[in-house]
Amino acid sequence: MYTAPDSCEGRCEEPYSEEDECHCDAECETYGNCCEDYGFSSSRDAITDEDLLRVSEQLYRADHNKARPNDIAINPQYQASPDETGDQEDRSPWPLYKHVNEELFSKPTYASFIKLLDNYQRATGREEEVTAEELREQDNFLKEVMKTELMKKLFAFLHQKNRYSSEQEFVADLKEMWFGLYSRGDGEQDSSGFEHVFSGEVKKGKVSGFHNWIRFYLLEKKGIVNYFSHNFDGPWDTYPDVLGLQFSWDGFYKEVGSAFIGSSPEFELGLYTLCFIARPGRACYLSLGGYSLSIQTYPWTKSTYGNGKKYIATAYVISP
């Protein structure tokens, strides 16, 4: 019987063959090379490329907490060519943000998100001490994002695809995949997906992760982040937009940090989670307001939670 090379239909427990595009044997979860519909009883539960384009447009339209056009004014200044992004030269004399309407930050999802940003030590190899208050802040953030239409739509889609049986199960999994600690250093529990993606880390003298506009704005305002240039400016003329940027954080350099600009915290959390569940370790092709965009996520492969589930290692927008 002929089966599509990228599906497990009719191939359950088929022995490994390196000719196959993707695999359906029990080991494929360990190696991260399973077909998209591995473990789902019918192809109806597989998340197709068309599903991703459709649901990403739904989430885009449901982002009611995003910045309005007059909430943010940015000044991107110098556009760096690909051979200039690595030379650590500050080619933009002014800050990136001319104006941000900080009333945005009093919205519940923003306020609970901002509280989480100071919970981390940026150096990898330093154990993260998680206090009871910090655990409460994680729960509060998840509680607030789950009140939004955007996250309700994401859950409804994943529920329909048999990924989660209840909202409670979904929230518990969000907490593990984003906030569960693992070791990027020498065995210390020093990192999590949330810390890496949204707050940023410093590893081997370079900025690692740090893909969030709110974090960038707050640190730029304090003089701790210095904007150097951008190498990509997305086609959107309203928010959220996308920038690929070069900057230094307290003297540590980021060669290309891509970020949504003006998106709500739930928009980023939602899109990254969707792509991590649907296309871990691969480019995830989405559509936002009629423009295409891809997100790359990677699972952390050295430790797991639950029944072999993977933590998020990173998630970011691919800037062309």
Automatic annotation (TrEMBL):
Catalytic reaction(s) noted: ribonucleotidyl-uridine-RNA = a 5'-end dephospho-uridine-RNA + a 3'-end 2',3'-cyclophospho-ribonucleotide-RNA
Q: Keywords for this entry?
A: Disulfide bond, Endonuclease, Hydrolase, Lyase, Manganese, Metal-binding, Nuclease, RNA-binding, Secreted, Signal
Pfam families the UniProt entry points to: Somatomedin_B (PF01033), XendoU (PF09412)
Q: Which EC numbers characterise this protein's activity in its record?
A: 4.6.1.-
Instruction: Indicate whether Coiled coil appears among the record's keywords.
Output: no
Q: Does the keyword Phosphoprotein apply?
A: no
Which GO molecular function annotations are given, in alphabetical order? hydrolase activity; lyase activity; metal ion binding; RNA binding; RNA endonuclease activity
Residue numbers spanned by region Disordered: 66-91
All copies of domain SMB, residue ranges: 4-46
Subunit-level organization: Monomer.
The entry's protein name is: Uridylate-specific endoribonuclease
Its source organism is Strix occidentalis caurina
